């Protein structure tokens, strides 16, 4: 799972954006500072980016910039939401979760008062569960494992580009939450069932809330 990089020169050619646009979007926090990776090459120092992440981010900016301001985009890409005031009915109406997954969440989530609005973290857990269960890649029993890992460890990685990994080996399911999946290696018998970027899931959630 080693990270594939793309040089700044190749990035500008591939996306058609200018040097000025790239650094303006960086200053507006549309592109994270830590995605600008300085490396030594035979011509000197050059800037590289995590290829998949930067190409996806620039495509999203180019798609949305005519409808949203750069400040709105920066807010959407930020891992932070100050607060929510949504209950179960609101989450159903906005397509955050189906009734079946919401019922599962209400039965299994810890520290949840169904009479009170969902917290930001709880809403994200629900949205992740909906995505994983709706995909058909995991079953309800495995959803409990995912929820348990999120509730225990998400606060430790929420400000990072964390990744949720769901693995299976010899019929045994394993769920991991890591701050980066760039340097994780598994034996051939381990199947990576799902790999979700928490920042990307938060972006999708915000898009549904906007």
Compile the SSE list and pairings.
Elements: E1 5-7, H1 8-15, H2 19-27, E2 37-41, E3 44-50, H3 51-64, H4 70-77, H5 88-93, H6 99-108, H7 120-135, H8 140-157, E4 163-169, E5 172-178, E6 191-197, H9 198-209
Antiparallel strand pairs: 1-3, 2-3, 4-5, 4-6
Helix pairs in contact: 7-8
Strand order of the largest sheet: 1-3-2
The portion of residues forming beta strands comes to 15-25%
DSSP helix fraction: 40-55%
Low-confidence stretches: none
Structure notes:
- The structure is a single chain.
- This protein has 9 helices and 6 strands.
- The chain is an alpha+beta fold.
- The strands form 2 sheets. A 3-stranded antiparallel sheet has the order 1-3-2.
- α7 (120-135) runs antiparallel to α8.
- The protein is globular and about 60 Å long.
- The mean pLDDT is 87.
Quick summary of this structure?
α7 packs antiparallel against α8. The chain contains nine helices and six strands; from the N terminus they run βααββααααααβββα. The protein has 210 residues and is of the alpha+beta class.
Supply the key terms:
6 strands, globular, alpha+beta
């Amino acid at each position: 799972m080693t990270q594939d990089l793309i040089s700044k020169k190749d990035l500008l050619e591939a996306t058609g954006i200018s040097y000025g646009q790239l650094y303006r979007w960086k200053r507006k926090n549309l592109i994270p500072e830590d995605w600008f990776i300085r490396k030594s090459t035979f011509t000197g120092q050059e800037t590289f980016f995590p290829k998949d992440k930067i190409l996806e981010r620039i495509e999203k900016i180019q798609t949305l910039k005519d409808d949203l301001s750069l400040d709105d985009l920066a807010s959407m890409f930020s891992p932070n939401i100050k607060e929510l005031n949504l209950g179960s009915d609101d989450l159903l109406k906005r397509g955050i979760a189906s009734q079946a997954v919401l019922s599962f969440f209400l039965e299994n989530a810890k520290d949840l008062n169904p009479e009170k609005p969902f917290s930001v973290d709880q809403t994200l857990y629900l949205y992740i569960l909906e995505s994983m269960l709706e995909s058909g890649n995991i079953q309800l029993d495995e959803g409990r494992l995912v929820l348990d890992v999120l509730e225990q460890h998400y606060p430790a990685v929420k400000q990072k580009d964390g990744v949720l990994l769901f693995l299976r080996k010899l019929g045994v399911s394993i769920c991991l939450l890591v701050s980066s999946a760039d340097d994780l290696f598994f034996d051939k018998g381990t199947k990576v069932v799902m790999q979700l970027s928490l920042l990307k899931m938060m972006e999708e959630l915000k898009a549904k809330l906007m």
